[in-house]
């Protein structure tokens, strides 16, 4: 359950602190263009000629090449990082096929669920999902939460307002997961007798998307 909560939070809120907004728009042709894998020879590093396949990546090459050896190793390339700085696994990292730290619409198309949410996640509408989108979405969510918690609209939160907002959030969260638990029980109760037998418990589960 915690893993599903974390994934939903990272993909929809995906809050991380820090950098400036990305460019507001991009040419439609560039947005829809298929991406290529930069590490063409599969040696685990990206040299300057390989980086040249991505205009944005090439522009940052010298900045990323910390040891100035003309190659970008995995620890020098942009990484998807979570709230506390750890590397993120799963869909987001896998979708970034060319390793440039952002996901194009063409890359997202490989994951139907990701593709379905792409337009919402692309907050600045530049045709990519990257750190700036996650940061902006996080800021918007925090602003929304603050506005809802500020009951007397004085522009600041008292302890009572914070406690009330936290209690409301916990109640909403609990209600949502109780509903999911009920749906899961119904799926597992194959014969609809209101209980789950040992055989039903051991029945193969559908693959998780």
TrEMBL record:
Coiled coil: none annotated. Residues 52-87, 137-172, 176-209 form the EF-hand domain. InterPro entries: EF-hand-dom_pair, EF_Hand_1_Ca_BS, EF_hand_dom. Residues 80-90 have a biased composition (Basic residues). It holds the Pfam family EF-hand_7. The keyword Signal applies. This is Calcium-binding protein.
């Amino acid at each position: 359950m915690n893993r599903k909560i974390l994934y939903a939070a990272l993909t929809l809120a995906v809050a991380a602190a820090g950098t400036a907004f990305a460019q507001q728009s991009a040419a439609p042709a560039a947005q829809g263009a298929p991406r290529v894998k930069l590490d063409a020879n599969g040696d685990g590093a990206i040299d300057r000629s390989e980086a040249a396949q991505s205009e944005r990546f090439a522009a940052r090459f010298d900045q990323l090449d910390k040891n100035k050896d003309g190659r970008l190793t995995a620890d020098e390339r942009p990484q998807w990082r979570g709230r506390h700085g750890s590397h993120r696994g799963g869909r987001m990292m896998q979708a970034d096929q060319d390793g440039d730290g952002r996901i194009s619409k063409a890359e997202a198309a490989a994951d139907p669920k990701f593709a379905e949410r792409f337009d919402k996640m692309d907050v600045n509408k530049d045709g990519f999902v990257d750190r700036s989108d996650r940061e902006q979405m996080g800021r918007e969510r925090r602003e929304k939460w603050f506005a809802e918690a500020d009951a007397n609209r004085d522009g600041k939160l008292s302890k009572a307002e914070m406690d009330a907002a936290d209690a409301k959030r916990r109640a909403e969260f609990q209600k949502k997961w109780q509903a999911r638990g009920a749906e899961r029980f119904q799926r597992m109760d194959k014969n609809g007798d209101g209980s789950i037998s040992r055989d039903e418990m051991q029945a193969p589960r559908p693959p998780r998307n």
